[in-house]
Amino acid sequence: LIPVIRAVCLSFNNGLKVDAIYGTKKLQKNMEMKFKRTMFVTVGTTSFDCLISSVSTNAFIETISALGYSRLVIQYGRGAKPTLDNVVDTTTKNLVEVESYRFKPSLQPDMEAASIIISHAGAGSIMECLNLRKRCVVVINDSLM
Questions:
Q1: What sequence ranges are listed for the domain Glycosyl transferase family 28 C-terminal (predicted)?
Q2: If you placed Cys at 82, which of 9, 32, 56, 69 could pair as Cys (CB 3.0 to 4.6 Å)?
Q3: In sequence order, which residues have a C-beta less than 8 Å from that of residue 95 and are 6 or more positions away?
Q4: How much is the CA Rg of the chain, to the nearest whole Å?
């Protein structure tokens, strides 16, 4: 997952100015995003422990920090709560602010605030990403097939 995220993020940022990435209206609306880039991970109403454990590792957090992300929001659904204690280096924890939750009435505020969304291959999540015109990395959950 890390090489894919690195490649996707670098391709989005390669040679683009901030106003080209966010658009003029969004740039004015979301000035904080310019300095606090957010990555949102969602599994919808299912469980996808493999994905959640992958984004909860020290290596993943170091990678997204190096790519300019300072906030990671994880919606873990019916699965196990991410064990961020596995991120042993306390300095790494400070690089990226991490928030996690099982469910919320709506994921839209988190999706709107995100610079990029990592999603399970659920139709609802993909449609929300498309409707919001958000960059999305879709990860297939083979255990559900």
A1: 38-143
A2: 56
A3: 61, 62, 65, 70
A4: 15
